[in-house]
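BUG: 3D viewer hangs when loading the predicted structure for this chain

Environment: internal workstation, default settings.
Expected: structure renders.
Actual: progress bar stalls at 90%.

Input used:
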Amino acid sequence: MKKKEFDNLITSMSKCGKCMSLKKRNGRDCSLVNIYRDECFGKSIPSIWTDWYRRLDSKIMIVGQDWGPFVDMEKLYDSYLASPTFENWKVLIDREKSLTKKMLTKFLVESAKICHATISMDDIFITNAIMCARRGNNYRGDNIDLLKSTIYCSGFLKRQVEIVKPKVIVTLGYYPLLSFATVYGFDISHKLSDVIRDMPVIKQEDFVIIPCYHPTAQIKSEVQLARYQTIWHFLD
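Structure tokens produced before the viewer hung:
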């Protein structure tokens, strides 16, 4: 049932064109690539970290900002097509050694250990506030309109929550949290540090949202780790 619902979501995302011709006021192109128009691509490799369809019953959902450049995803997909098996897919995921992945894994594993909890990174549903990919080959801040794209995608993120039904949602940085504020109707400050101080846990009817800094942000490790420890208080 969940897989069918997610199929329908992918189809809906494949028809969206809101970010396909975005420009900033200065004329800079911020258009994104809709990776779901090739539904096989969108279903097989949504990111360099995760496969959605095997994680639809996850209790933890982690929401980042965006997938990054399309060229990186395309390279991964080509490597997957060379041997389209789950075993090869696992190898490709394990090869991804970004600092973001390293630090996120570190904070999750260490916080679970402190709280005497068990964790498998394979059981965490990972997604983003912005569902399409960047053009070009880098993560420059001026090649994406974070505010508009976040708002445009917020309904798709909400639908993922409705399908997966996580108990805990962890937002990494400001824009994922803004997406949830948009669709669930709560107000947040313009500074993430103020939100974390004033709203350390945001309770919704069926889940909680735990705002966190991005794992590579210049924040003391003990402060980061304390945020991740909150996750385990809301899981059985």
